[in-house]
Design a protein that fits this description.
about 100 residues; mainly beta; four-stranded antiparallel beta sheet; two-stranded antiparallel sheet
Length: about 100
């Protein structure tokens, strides 16, 4: 939103997902302020995912009204009843 090229509160983020491990990868994004969870979203990054609009995640919630937050995005897929994590990235969303 503010044009600084970094994720900030109120910005919309998405992820460039590529893996050969699964044809149905997912991303789980959580953000916390002072150890308190203020944002959580999960979405699939594959063509047949039934809710593709959820791939754009807006960094705000009723619990996150402003300020910076520590965020983690985790890439995973389902393998039967098991979740297999492929990787994660941490970033700070500015305020």
């Amino acid at each position: 939103m503010n044009g600084n090229g970094a994720p900030d509160w109120g910005d919309t983020v998405t992820f460039d997902v590529s893996t050969t491990e699964s044809t149905e990868p997912h991303v789980d994004l959580t953000c916390s302020q002072n150890g308190v969870l203020v944002y959580g979203a999960t979405t699939g990054y594959f063509a047949s995912y039934p809710w593709p609009w959820t791939q754009s995640m807006t960094l705000s919630s009723s619990a996150w009204l402003s300020g910076p937050a520590d965020c983690t995005a985790q890439l995973y897929y389902f393998s039967g009843r098991r979740i297999s994590v492929l990787g994660s990235i941490d970033f700070t969303a500015g305020g």
